[in-house]
Amino acid sequence: MIRAGIVGGTGYTGVELLRLLVLHPGVDVTVVTSRSDAGMRVDAQYPSLRGLCDVSFTEPEVDALADCDVVFFATPNGTAMLMAESLLAHGVKVIDLSADFRIKDALEWSRWYGMEHACPELIAEAVYGLPEVNREQIKQARLLACPGCYPTAVQLGYLPLIERQLIDFEHLIADVKSGASGAGRKAQVPTLMSETGESFKAYAVAGHRHLPEISQGLAMMAGKPVGLTFVPHLIPMIRGIHATLYGRLTGDAEELQALYEERYAEERFVDVLPAGAQPDTRNVKGSNNCQIAIHQPQGKDTVVVLAVIDNLVKGAAGQAVQNMNLMCGLDESVGLDIVALYP
Amino acid sequence: MIRAGIVGGTGYTGVELLRLLVLHPGVDVTVVTSRSDAGMRVDAQYPSLRGLCDVSFTEPEVDALADCDVVFFATPNGTAMLMAESLLAHGVKVIDLSADFRIKDALEWSRWYGMEHACPELIAEAVYGLPEVNREQIKQARLLACPGCYPTAVQLGYLPLIERQLIDFEHLIADVKSGASGAGRKAQVPTLMSETGESFKAYAVAGHRHLPEISQGLAMMAGKPVGLTFVPHLIPMIRGIHATLYGRLTGDAEELQALYEERYAEERFVDVLPAGAQPDTRNVKGSNNCQIAIHQPQGKDTVVVLAVIDNLVKGAAGQAVQNMNLMCGLDESVGLDIVALYP
Amino acid sequence: MIRAGIVGGTGYTGVELLRLLVLHPGVDVTVVTSRSDAGMRVDAQYPSLRGLCDVSFTEPEVDALADCDVVFFATPNGTAMLMAESLLAHGVKVIDLSADFRIKDALEWSRWYGMEHACPELIAEAVYGLPEVNREQIKQARLLACPGCYPTAVQLGYLPLIERQLIDFEHLIADVKSGASGAGRKAQVPTLMSETGESFKAYAVAGHRHLPEISQGLAMMAGKPVGLTFVPHLIPMIRGIHATLYGRLTGDAEELQALYEERYAEERFVDVLPAGAQPDTRNVKGSNNCQIAIHQPQGKDTVVVLAVIDNLVKGAAGQAVQNMNLMCGLDESVGLDIVALYP
Amino acid sequence: MIRAGIVGGTGYTGVELLRLLVLHPGVDVTVVTSRSDAGMRVDAQYPSLRGLCDVSFTEPEVDALADCDVVFFATPNGTAMLMAESLLAHGVKVIDLSADFRIKDALEWSRWYGMEHACPELIAEAVYGLPEVNREQIKQARLLACPGCYPTAVQLGYLPLIERQLIDFEHLIADVKSGASGAGRKAQVPTLMSETGESFKAYAVAGHRHLPEISQGLAMMAGKPVGLTFVPHLIPMIRGIHATLYGRLTGDAEELQALYEERYAEERFVDVLPAGAQPDTRNVKGSNNCQIAIHQPQGKDTVVVLAVIDNLVKGAAGQAVQNMNLMCGLDESVGLDIVALYP
Asked: Which positions are catalytic residues (chains A, B, C, D) (predicted)?
């Protein structure tokens, strides 16, 4: 059994990791830390786990975590970079769900995240955990940077088009919408029910922190820099991301449906819908799936890709477990056989 | 492997049965019927099942269903009573999620359901499928009547108080609230998003069809008739039932918390919360659990019980699978190890 | 023109007062205070008011407020009691939407609100602002205590039955449900979209602060103490309260519908629905109406009253404006001709 | 007083017209028709109107409607074109909220709406009712075609950029999101609470009926054909449209904020937000306003316009009343002084 620790167990990605790991047949969750709730039983905070999780929150200390085989960081940005080095030194595999190791350029990271990077020497080693792009590296990784929720949906949506150089890289437009759980479980006015419910808005249009991460990922696929306009929006619901991606075709477009189907034929968690379909976030709610459709409206040269994920699963905790499976030599889908909760 | 059939696979209880059964390790879903969608792949109608279910809807014919070991009816009221006898004659176990076999008095049934009962001779044999009350009978059943969603929550909530004769049976008040999925997946104006969203109302105050079912169940627990005021309400959400139950204490109330904990100590799917807690429907969303709390506000003689379930799981498909497990000699919880989807 | 000030303009009752007052033909809003947002334009904080409100938030100072004819307190509990005396001394009418002057017994108030009352000598003078009960006193009031949202719905629902002594006063049960805006516009986890959305729960079952206020009001109607079990619940929506009220009939019940219609025949903001109807919170959303229906299910001795209001209008700001109209000699409904926003 | 009739009073645009017209100081609603509800009081169907509307639904007959000064069609497509001619012949002004007279090319109209146009000779006379574009024509109109909801938001958003020829007309991208009330009040599965709630999807990506209307409108502004990719989405809420519009700048962009402010300086119902702001649909909920913001993310050549309206007000009934005011010589904003319902 893999001994797993979770640092930052009181946020939504933390409790989502618990939802997946307490039923994972190869994992034993031994440590769950939370500064604010140390000493409290986990299932007292999260009654959905009653009967399935008998650990209590502890302070985040390296000594206790060093006994784990794998430690997940479900912390705010800036925490994993302080503890990763010690844990690695103890032979612990580190899977970071925060943004600390996603951006390869430490200065760029600092500009977007507003702090100096505490551990820039580890950035190069960190593997970006998008299995559909770099599965082999993930299998060898000691330190894994889990992609952000928006970046997961946008990269999976654009991947076949960009790998095959079929669209104009300089004018990509990603109009993406997310449920409110993406904003996390913190006391704040803007995501109150009375503020977010029955309303819809764009935010961070001038520049969202996921922009450099997406641009970096797309540039690696393209083999050159890309120009991306990324507009995130807040949907009055809890879970789900819907990416509507636009690109101008430069090459032959006749086989787009087949291109997507082939690219993802072997991918367990990416599902290309039949031609003409339009994915709905409810069909991936609670599951680790990404459902994708590709359209070319009116036969014109603008292609439209629709991609949906559950931001807390394929966009966070589920993808982290998928990466853990790969890093630990398990089958990639262990613990992730989940049917989306419809309706 | 148990060969299972589902009659009426296009409603919410039908697709919820599929969600549970496609991952059930002891079941193979071989037939799913739907008059309206016959010929269509199930996962074309329900993309949440893509990759997990490769059957197509067929017409509801006895011949095909007769090859099953178990057949679930997830049909409107009035269908199961037409087919149950033939299936039983073929040795098929029948689990009815509709109301056809819940009420023991056929005339009473006719009054509430507005049609004559087509098969009154089977009513006596049908076992009412609330395992916490009559597990042993369920194990022997050929024909099982699954409780309604409201009746499940109300009966589990009142059970310990009534069994122990602690409250005035003549003036029970059940103020119960349900999400919109309880109204089913049928085209109608009142449960449109624009009608049900952002609003709250009581309905069927003069008399809801679940009233005689609840009264019958409580009377059996009490050993005599009960007087019940039952007011159902519609919550602007999809899944979940919250029952707020009131009763006037006639006996000693000091040990109510202990009473509930003891009564349900061995029950895998009924969870008595710690004293002072208040259950939240989100903590059972997608799971087969019932969470219960008991309060005696201000120390007065009115006791308040709070009970929550997911109407589609413990209130329908999950309880049906629990019953199937019992009827087929499996462990009661196989296929039902699910953590509620929070948030 | 009445010069009106609002203390505490950044909460939901504050902005709701502004919604009503900026279009009120007899009122000029001259001062809006907010410690946190002083200096900011009101319509920068609340873009719904752009073009209709050109004042800026100021610090809450008596000097500026003393120029007003009427000052509304839309503040947390404990603020109005510190400023009311000075404002009254300047000849300003004070309308308090918080709880400071609702409870006539200062010790009782302290027990429920957890602080000593700073101004107990004014409590006796304060008039409780439920126009349907004490309109004449309101017209003469200098200091008005606006009822809480739950108390408004419960008292209007029970009023005819209790005035006429038709039910058992010792065992009243009020099962009441509120939208999330009742919890106010403050940063906190429990009313985040991801916590409150798609879920339903009871809270404060052991004792809610509105319990003594309701009990006091019902006792005044009854002419003797009442025994009340009050269970509030949180609905996953923004606006609206639905009270489901239970009582055991002691007298003749045949004319309940007529009783309610007669009692409220002259009331502009209380609307008794036709026999058999069930009110829906959406039909009063944004309006100052209370819609009520009375039922006697199955002809038994338990009567069920259903009453709905918009918690921010008839339950707060609308009722405050209604009271202001009365106190200032205007027609009671000026500025309150609003059709509910359906759908 | 203007005598107004409403044909098709049972849909959401019909009841929204009633919400506005019953309080309009210059209008008397004399006829409301509904085939399905003829004979029923309007306020029995819509309790939000109790006390404000004492008419009953009648059959849609020209004789009765001919007594009106203005008749609004809030009907499904294909009805207004059958009755408009007779009403005009009686001197009645006709305001059509359906699509019958929006498209100037009758064949194009037939292709998108799937029926032959019954009255093509009137199409040329019909004035397209977007006052910000053609107010003077509206004042003279006998037959007015109210714009669709999506077209209103998209055209107002693009208008200044296109009039000034600042963007590439061949590759416009309109990613637009609507609440569920846009789908109307008809019994159907896809907009049930359990289908639409807690989910998000794109629809009609291959071609939505509003595409030719938007293209026609933009082409008139541009003076030449435009190439538009229009992707509508369904938001899990009731009211509101959010348009996110993309364009590639071809000219000088430095003064975009000033350009928008100047273009709309005199427009009562179009509100350009301060630089950097992002509009939220809740801030126009229930009001006739369109709030707009213009962004140029990262200083690149892709401009992003955000525009929000309430689909039932500025996108339907409110704009219809605005047009009526113009056609009848009233001030444009009479009856439309409404503060959005926040929260």
From this structure: 149
